[in-house]
Automatic annotation (TrEMBL):
Sorted UniProt keywords: Membrane, Transmembrane, Transmembrane helix
Protein name per Swiss-Prot or TrEMBL: TMM68 protein
Signal peptide boundaries: none
A GO-annotated cellular component: membrane
Amino acid sequence: MTGGNESCTAGPTSMSYLTCLTYILEEWTGVEDIGDYLSYAFYILWLLFPLVVVFVLPGVIVILFYVSILWLHIYKRKNEIKEAYSHDAWIGAREVLATLWDGHGRLWHGYELHGVENIPQGPGLLVFYHGATPIDYVYFSARLHIMKKRRCSVVADHFVFRLPG
């Protein structure tokens, strides 16, 4: 290291943590000027970050769909006996999935629901646009279930039923 000291902070000049880490990596790998290589690697990561985001978001949504389906299947198998003695055994499963999807919508997209008080108590018709995937309906129904404890049925295009799972 610098001046034969064991620590980066000891010695006549103190250095930053990143500089200390650079010196440690240079000694460990035997490569001189490793900072140039690291700055190039960070540049490539920064350059490819939008592509990673474009492919990670659909992957996370598909994984969450399959986790939801798996959760419902396990919940159904576990509660087959309880279903005979309970009025609705699916309350717990709805709560868990609504929380999962609402958390994903809030964290990943900043999804908020305004004007829920304007939805009538009886039957109603909500018409809304969805993009390439009907993920906004999933966020809407999850948030509505958490806020009002209401379920809504959907009339959908044939595309929705072609989604895997």
